Amino acid sequence: MANRKHNFSAGPCTLPLEVLEEAQAEFVDYQGAGMSLIEMSHRGKHFDQVATEAMALSMEVFEVPEDFSVLFLQGGAILQFSMIPMNLLHEGHKGGYVNSGTWARGAIQDAREYGEIYTAWDGASCDYTRMPSTRELAIQDNTRYLHITTNETIGGIRFPKWPDVEIPLVADMSSEYMARPLPWEKFDLVYGGAQKNLGPAGMAVVFVRKSILEKTNRKIGRYLRYDIHESKASMFNTPPVFPIYMFGKVLKWMKKHGGLAGMERRAADKAGTLYGAIDSSNGYYRCPVEVACRSHMNVVFRLPTEELEQAFLEEAAEAGFMNLKGHRSVGGCRASIYNALPGASVKALAEFMADFQHRNR
Ligand SMILES: *Cc1c(COP(=O)(O)O)cnc(C)c1O
To answer: Closest Cα to atom 13, ligand 1: which residue?
Structure first.
């Protein structure tokens, strides 16, 4: 297809082309209904089928055990920063948080408004270039959950191994959602915004262990209560209709491409290509992240000078490699290579990097 660029955006970001085309084909007249899916009631038969299928497929593709429910909520991942402590923390409970970078700090900041929160590990001392090992975690008594950010989108780090702790884990998986398997027995709640691996912006996908819903806090507004969303199958109010519809299509695409194992393999291959390009550049490109914790989704790298970084970004954009600028808080470059980004885009970028180095020694 003409005019599709190599899009390394950190989110919203590349979606599978076949998903976009399918949605385009049925957008104006959904399955002969004479109206678009986004023009009809969310309680009608068409949308009911779409939502039911997306729920079932999300459990299947992400290999989620039956004692979890999936919720489709609005407010993105950031609303979950508040909903989690509001629902889960009672009097006498503490929330333990791993401070692994920008997004974890956001989760900590919001949680402090609702309960007793402490930092179980702070990555500031290593400038957020790695994740902690289990023995580095300082877990206090009466901790209800340990919150982790499995992949820090800005710092470009991920947990190589899951923390092995006695208390339940709660995880923000926004930027590596459905890109690697999870040991579900360790988790009470897993959440993330849809707009990185799963679909368009406008929805958070939350997996919550059913047995904890009996004990969640009821003294909060109804939209903020997990138990209500669960009992209404995410139809308590008008759900994010379009994101749910697109998510269903992305899930079918994931299934067709090998499911979770397929996504994990694709990610490892693409990340391997880019880190290979960095590591074989004799120090021209540098990745500040500890090797074991390198993200398979957000590859951050620097060039020898900021002038060269500027030239690199400009020439890359001219050559069709878009959105490679690092987050404004850290600078440098970042290639986000989420599930739907084709391997060919990553190979082409690796070649461009070698060529740029050759021309700009
Ligand atoms: C993008 C991102 C968020 C913010 O998500 P919103 O849906 O915009 O609220 C939170 N956490 C992580 C790890 C992210 O990558």
So the answer is: 174
Question: Annotated catalytic sites, by residue?
Answer: 103, 172, 196
The answer for residues whose C-beta is within 8 angstroms of residue 315's C-beta and 6 or more apart is 356
Ligand 1 centroid to residue 18 C-alpha, Å: 25
Q: Which of 199, 226, 256 is at the close of a domain?
A: 256
Tens digit of pLDDT at every position of the chain (361 positions): 668 999 999 999 999 999 999 999 999 999 999 999 999 999 999 999 999 999 999 999 999 999 999 999 999 999 999 999 999 999 999 999 999 999 999 999 999 999 999 999 999 999 999 999 999 999 999 999 999 999 999 999 999 999 999 999 999 999 999 999 999 999 999 999 999 999 999 999 999 999 999 999 999 999 999 999 999 999 999 999 999 999 999 999 999 999 999 999 999 999 999 999 999 999 999 999 999 999 999 999 999 999 999 999 999 999 999 999 999 999 999 999 999 999 999 999 999 999 999 999 8
145 and 285 share a domain?
Answer: no
Q: Which residue has the tokens 């060919």?
A: 344
Cα–Cα dist 217/226, whole Å = 9
Q: Is the CB of 336 within 6 Å of ligand 1?
A: no
Examine the domain organization and report whether 122 and 246 are in the same domain. Answer: yes
**Domain's final residue, options 240, 256, 272:** 256
| Residue 331 domain boundaries | 259-359
CA 241 / ligand 1 centre spacing (Å): 20
| Residues in contact with 100: Cβ distance below 8 Å, sequence separation at least 6, in sequence order | 121, 123, 128, 131, 132, 148, 149, 152, 155, 157
Is 110 near ligand 1, meaning CB less than 6 Å away? no
**Centroid of ligand 1 to alpha carbon of 201 (angstroms):** 10
pTM of this structure:
0.97
